Amino acid sequence: MSTTEPEASRPSDDRATPDSLLHSAPGTGVAPEDLVMASGRDVTPATLEWARKKMEREGPNCIERLLP
């Protein structure tokens, strides 16, 4: 029995999802709560303050570094 895949069943590069479609579109209202949750932390006054400061320094795009 062969372990190689038939040509038709192999993924091709032209079928991959474009990178531009894999992002969260941060210009559409990212809130500090979103950043806290994306970081895997609990929403608390301290983590909300951390998120506010991070967003002030880095802008709403900073959430992109936390999301796959």
- Uncertain residue segments: none
How many helices? 2
Q: What order do the helices and strands follow?
A: HH
Computed Rg: 19 Å
E-strand count: 0
Structural class: mainly alpha
Percent strand equals under 5%
Distance between the termini: 37 Å
Helix content: 25-40%
The main pleated sheet reads as: none
Task: Identify the overall geometry.
Answer: elongated
**What would the average pLDDT be, to the nearest integer?**
77
Q: Overview of this structure, please?
A:
- The protein has 68 residues and is an all-alpha fold.
- It has helices at residues 32-38, 45-58.
- Helix 1 packs across helix 2 (45-58).
- It is elongated.
List keywords for this structure.
single chain, 68 residues, 2 helices, elongated, mainly alpha
Quick structural summary:
By secondary structure, the protein is mainly α. The chain is built from two helices and no strands. Residues 7-17 have a biased composition (Basic and acidic residues).
What does the secondary structure layout of this molecule look like, with pairings?
Elements: H1 32-38, H2 45-58
